[in-house]
Design goal:
This protein has 228 residues and is an alpha/beta fold. It has one domain: P-loop containing nucleotide triphosphate hydrolases (Rossmann fold), CATH 3.40.50.300. It has a six-stranded mixed β-sheet, sandwiched between helices. A four-stranded antiparallel β-sheet has the order 2-1-4-5, with helices on one face. Strand 4 and strand 5 form a beta hairpin. Helix 3 packs across helix 4, helix 3 packs parallel to helix 5 and helix 4 crosses helix 5. The longest helix has 14 residues.
Length: 228
């Protein structure tokens, strides 16, 4: 079973506006960790948002075996962990532990178990000391780790990560790459961090001009040239 597939998918922000993504075909198999590369504004975030129904599309998207349509949307989202580029967009609660446990509580996990698993997710990112902190006291990098812990805590079938290493220091990037490499989850990771992508991804795709190309290698020269 393909964990994620796009068939002829086009995404526009406005009905009569230009296509941000056009005619996208994509297949991601179970266990793959796919780096999604491209310049700023190329459509990486757009592709991730379309995958969970945050943007309308034409064409066909299947996620975890289900076609992405309104009746199936809530169920699909329980199988997907999403890390936004800006962690403030997904942090909802005043205290860190409550925020990380939120996705588990929505799935019906008892409070004590949810909080225990949330602590484990924080610990896996070296952020266990933040559990009792108030989110508004955290730095941007700390908020990023809390948001990522929330995405990991539910053990999703598919992880969509938008620039997960952007606010991390070098040891944090190494720790995260090793963590992702060891997870039993399929991932699509939008990133500019080529070293990070090489460390944890099994293959790469390049978005250019609204279209998707196979990137034969995760290489700075190929990426900077903009040539698929």
């Amino acid at each position: 079973m393909r964990v994620l597939s796009f068939e002829g998918v086009t995404v526009r922000y406005e009905a009569e506006g230009p296509a941000i993504l056009e005619g996208i075909d994509l297949e991601v198999a179970p266990g793959e960790r796919v780096a999604l590369l491209g310049l700023n504004g190329s459509g990486k975030t757009t592709l991730l948002k379309a995958t969970v129904g945050l943007l309308s599309h034409s064409g066909c998207i299947h996620v975890c075996g289900e076609r992405l349509e309104r009746p199936a949307l809530a169920g699909i989202r329980t199988k997907v962990g999403f890390l936004f580029n800006l962690p403030e967009d997904q942090l909802l609660f005043p205290e860190v532990l409550d925020d990380v446990a939120f996705g588990l509580r929505r799935k019906g996990v008892p409070l004590a178990e949810a909080r225990s698993r949330a602590r484990s997710a924080l610990a896996s990112l070296g952020a266990e000391a933040l559990a009792e902190c108030e989110i508004h006291h955290l730095s941007h990098g700390q908020k990023q780790r809390v948001a990522l812990a929330g995405a990991l805590a539910t053990e999703p079938e598919l992880l969509l990560l938008d620039e997960p290493s952007a606010a991390l220091d070098p040891p944090g990037r190494v720790r995260l790459a090793r963590l992702l490499e060891g997870l039993n989850a399929t991932m699509v990771i939008a990133t500019h961090d080529l070293e990070f992508a090489r460390a944890c991804c099994t293959r790469a795709l390049l978005i250019q001009g609204g279209r998707l190309f196979t990137c034969p290698r995760i290489d700075p020269d190929a990426f900077l040239s903009g040539e698929p």
